[in-house]
Amino acid sequence: MSPALAAFLRPSPFALKFATKGVLAMALALYAAFFFDLDRPYWALISAAFLQTRPMSGMVVEKGICQITGTFVGTCVAVVIMGCFAQVPELALGSVTLWIGLCIYGASLTHNNLSYGCVMAAVACMIIVVLTSSAPDDFFSVALARLSELSLGALCAVVVSALVWPIRVRDHLGQLADTAVNATFRYMALAFSMPLEADRAGSQDTAGQSQGHSQAQLKGQQRERMAMLEQMMTGLDALNNLEIDAHSARYEGPQGKGRIRGVHLLTRRSMRLYATLKALHQLRHPEFFVPSQGDDGEAMVPTGELNQTQGQEAERFSQPTQALMQRLGAAFQSMADNQGTAQARKTLKELRGECLRLSRGQRSITALEARLLFSLREVLGHALVILQAREVINHPGRHQLRQPSMSWHRDHGRAVIDALRAMAIFSATAIFWLATAWDNGAVAMLLGTLFSGIFVSRGDPAPIIPMVLKGLLLAVPSVLLFGNVMLSHAQHFVPFVIIFSIPLFLGLMGSVVPALAGIALPFVVFNILLVMPDNGMTFDVAYTLNRSLAAGIGLIVTIIGFRLIPVPGAGWDKRQLIRATASDIRELAERSTERLDSWFGGRMGDRLLRLARHEQTRSREQEARRSGENASGQPDDAQQQVLGMPLLTLGLTGMDIGRGIGFVRRELGNDVPRPVQHALRELIHALADDYQRCARGESPTRMRAAGDRLCEVIEQHRTMSRHKQALLAGWLTRVQLTLQSDALRQQRS
After folding, report:
1. What CATH code is carried by the domain that includes residue 263?
2. Where does this polypeptide localize (predicted)?
3. DSSP output for 631-665
4. Are 670 and 719 in contact (CB under 8 A)?
């Protein structure tokens, strides 16, 4: 049975509860609106419907507060506009256009439900000005009615969400935290358990394997790589949802703020862990990072350099170090399989002590191996903190934690594009309304403004808007049957609500299925908007079709607007994020060493999540393309595809560079000789420049000389111990290899 049929014929208990809660909230809002004799009760229904899309108690409260606040602000702005331009509708609509652009600009820069509040400020102002432009004397009564209706719907949704089968944000956050931690540990288990390339090559030579076996081995490596990618994406997706949903926990009691701080700690440390793991995996498996051939089959790396990176990595690390990494893989796999937290902490502390003993017990240790052992200790330390963060999320009362929130990346260029698009959509529908004097033209203006704002948070809303149009097409026959035929026979409120709730219940039940949500939720909204239940409603089929036509025009104009002014894609985001990251790397030379890591990590967290979302989209497109090629009979060239994650890898490299700079600055301290300070500043600027170069596919040119200069100056002035100097040299070598590898990957991608 297809998922679409199963959603209605075999619904899950959660779907039935979700639909029941939504219908109860809307029924309560409708009854209250009728009881208080409000002018347009259907606005209370729409308000309750939008708040029930995420039925968790804290989220409904937060979204309701943002909706009421946005509506109040929009009403105040409408008062100012009508006070100035009540006699000139054209100027009033022009002022509304500017206000819509400002609100959508703010929605694009904000996150969580604050974005929804900005959209509601635009919608409330637009509704009030448009409805009263022909009758300015009724302005205050209309403004008060809209504010009352939307606030009433929000209040009813909050009450039902809190009393009927309440779903707590804390449980949701706990599940997401478990998913993120377990996926991270599985990724670490795969990374450390994968044997070295030289070991594979040796076993292949001993057994005398054929060339066909070599191809099978390449495919096996690709499967291992894809398994790691899948676990990383699972973890990053859970972290992304955690950061989006965590702020609602503050409305579920005094422990909510503790959970929020735990989420910030988990996200920040997980990002650092992924950056360190990526560097460690590159040291152990350079064959995954330095491609030997381009798409045309020509060598991209000289044979001598390739042999050095692929044939000698086993000699880089001693046998005890390799055995330790195998133990790490087994330990993390056990932790991912729900090993107890206490036992996991004990295991991590034992392994961390073993790393320390190895680093101090080996005399002839190379700079790279010293850096690797130091990074292993960092990884284990991050894992311990991640376990603590999960405990804080689940049991915040047991821990006292002070953790600053993340700094969100704000793309002002994209916000301007979103604002211009929303203004263009509203202007087109407003001109159409003025030119035709069509009563239902306001519906087109409403939908254009609403959806151009709601889709701001979507990476690529182009595929979603046609689904909204399908929801409208399905809602029209439903409204004709239930709204015009059956409702006309309802003489009392109870049969009226029962009949009216049937399509709403079905739509809410289908919205639980992700594949149907883009159709089912608009189906619910359009059923309310086209029926328009109130005390003086008429059952006119022609009026319903006329209103449906206006809704279709509004959606078509919105689709055209997104086609003509598309959302900036991955290329735009990549350039903006890389430029911002390089700017932050340069700023590390000037900022105080106190809380340097928390400042840089907080700013990088949101960037990594954005790059991860683009990486997920790119991976799905590549998988679909490969499936199409295999289905058409073409050979599987998976090994010639761009391996790894070129977008996310750049973000992880930036995180690793920033953390390394923080380590160097802390080890040098504040009282640094001027030559060392100057050499460190030169290295930081060289790293930022080479980071931008590798993002363009160009090899690094400045950091090697700047790094050598810094090491020489440090040795001359003895500002760092021998052991720390070895760690610094190992880090510089690793970063050089990383930037070269990233540059090659960007060329191929």
Report:
1. 1.20.120
2. Cell membrane
3. HTT----GGGS--S-HHHHHHHHHHHHHHHHHHHH
4. no
Q: How far apart are CA 331 and CA 108, in angstroms?
A: 43
Instruction: Please work out, in degrees rounded to the nearest 5, the angle formed at the alpha carbon of residue 241 by the alpha carbons of 239 and 245.
Output: 120
For residues 558 and 586, membership in a common domain is answered with no
The pair of three-digit structure tokens given for residue 519, joined into one six-digit string? 């159709």
Over residues 642-674, the pLDDT tens digits come to 445 677 788 888 888 988 888 888 888 777 888
Rounded-to-integer distance, Cα 544 and Cα 530, Å: 6
Please report the pLDDT score of residue 58 as a whole number: 83
Q: What pLDDT is attached to residue 219?
A: 65
Instruction: Please check whether residues 155 and 109 belong to one and the same domain.
Output: yes
Question: In Å, how far are 170, 180, 394 from 176, measured between CA atoms?
Answer: 10, 6, 11
669: left (phi over 0), alpha (psi -120 to 50) or beta: left
Backbone angles phi, psi at 214, to 5 degrees: -65, -40
pLDDT at residue 43 in the model: 87
* Residue range of the domain that includes 443: 10-167+411-564
Token code pair at residue 593: 């060493």
Task: Tokens for 472, please give them.
Answer: 């409208």
173 and 163 belong to one structural domain = no
On whether residue 239 sits in a domain, the answer given is: yes
Cα gap 65→251, rounded to integer Å? 11
Which parts of the chain have pLDDT scores under 50?
Answer: 197-210, 288-314, 634-643
Tens-place pLDDT, residues 718-743 = 888 887 888 788 788 888 888 888 88
- Please give the backbone phi and psi of residue 299, each rounded to the nearest 5 degrees, phi first: -70, 130
For the chain, how many structural domains are there in total?
Answer: 3
DSSP character string of 351-410: HHHHHHHHHHH-SS--HHHHHHHHHHHHHHHHHHHHHHHHHHHH-GGG-----PPPPPP-
Choosing from 342, 372, 398, the residue where a domain stops is: 398
pTM of this structure? 0.80
- 50: Cβ–Cβ under 8 A, 6 or more apart, which residues? 63, 67, 116, 525
- Of the residues 398, 431, 447, the one at which a domain ends: 398
CA dihedral 391, 396, 399, 403 (to 10 degrees): 90
| CA atoms lying within 13 Å on the CB side of residue 14 | 7
Predicted pLDDT of residue 1: 65
Q: What is the reported pLDDT for 102?
A: 95
146 and 31 housed in the same domain: yes
Indicate whether 207 belongs to any domain.
Answer: no
The residues that bridge with 299 in the sheet, in sequence order, are 293
